[in-house]
Amino acid sequence: MKSNQILIALVLLRLAFFSTQAQASVVTGGSTMLTDSNVSQLTAWLGQGSVELTNIFTKNVGDDSAVFHAAVDGKGATISVMEWIETTTGASGIVGGYNPRSWKSWNNFYGEFNYSWNTDDRTAFLFNLSTDSIFHQNPANPDTYWDSIDSGFYQTLNALSQGPTFGLGHDLFVGGDLTHGFSYLYSYAATGGNNSTILGTNFGRVDTSDKNYAYVGKLEVFTISQKTVDVPEAPNIALFIIALFSLAVTRRIKL
Q1: Is the pTM higher than 0.85?
Q2: pLDDT in tens, 236-252
Q3: Would you give the distance in Å from CA 109 to the centre of its chain?
Q4: Is residue 38 part of a domain?
Q5: Domains contained in the chain, number
Q6: Is 155 domain-assigned?
Q7: SS3 for the chain, per residue?
Q8: Is the dihedral of CA 30, 32, 37, 41 positive or negative?
Q9: Is 111 within a domain?
Q10: Residue 73: which region, alpha, beta or left (left: phi > 0; alpha: psi -120 to 50)?
Q11: d(C-alpha 255, C-alpha 239), whole Å
């Protein structure tokens, strides 16, 4: 009988450590902006399960778009995260975008777009972590604003003279000095017309421009890879406690 009790206790201990384990995403290389909650939200939006976000670029004073591209070009899918303060409305937040392709450095005046022909290829998205808002590329249909243009076709813009830039609007644009930008939602979730920004505010005007300009503070870029972190779940901890109790009772009876 005692042998059976010991065996049961050992089985419970094994279950406590080796049964279903939770997965959690992690950040490698540090971040001055992303909280655990932010990482969980980005993980949910990516839909790839547990991931490792590796910091490959953190903006320092004096960095420009050439420094940005030297760090991020050719690294595969990335997430760019930045502080964003709109100068016309005063709205602010932590915003960014997911680029499923590698950034490149086209050294010409206009740069070169990454195009996404089909809806299934339109996996890039913009986000506002301050409000947990996500903006997907518009599907492969003429939009309701100009029937002749498929707005979601324009995924990202690669230009040596620019930081991370998304969409034709541009929906999210960071200038060459990495300290200014603008948002003009058009290729990404521009429902109801293109009169809003990544912060959800209506456009103000700066002189004769209809772009909502912003100050860009901190800027970080992360690569994405699959990562599993084993963490005992609550039921497993309970099993562990029960197993220890069973062993203690068994030992007491034996004595």
Answers
A1: no
A2: 544 445 444 454 544 55
A3: 29
A4: no
A5: 1
A6: yes
A7: CHHHHHHHHHHHHHHHHHCCCECCCEEECCCCCCCHHHHHHHHHHHCCCCEEEEEEEECCCCCCHHHHHHHHECCCCEEEEEEEEECCCCCEEEEEEEECCCECCCCCCCCEEEECCCHHHCCCEEEECCCCEEEEECCCCCCCCCCCCCHHHEEEEECCCCCCEECCCCCEEECCCCCEEEECCCCECCCCCCCECCCCCECCCECCECCEEEEEEEEEEEEEEECCCCECCHHHHHHHHHHHHHHHHHHHHHC
A8: negative
A9: yes
A10: beta
A11: 24
Q: What is the pLDDT of residues 149-201, one digit of tens each?
A: 788 899 999 999 999 999 997 999 999 999 999 998 889 985 544 568 888 77
Q: Residue 83's domain spans which residues?
A: 56-228
Residue 76 lies in a domain: yes
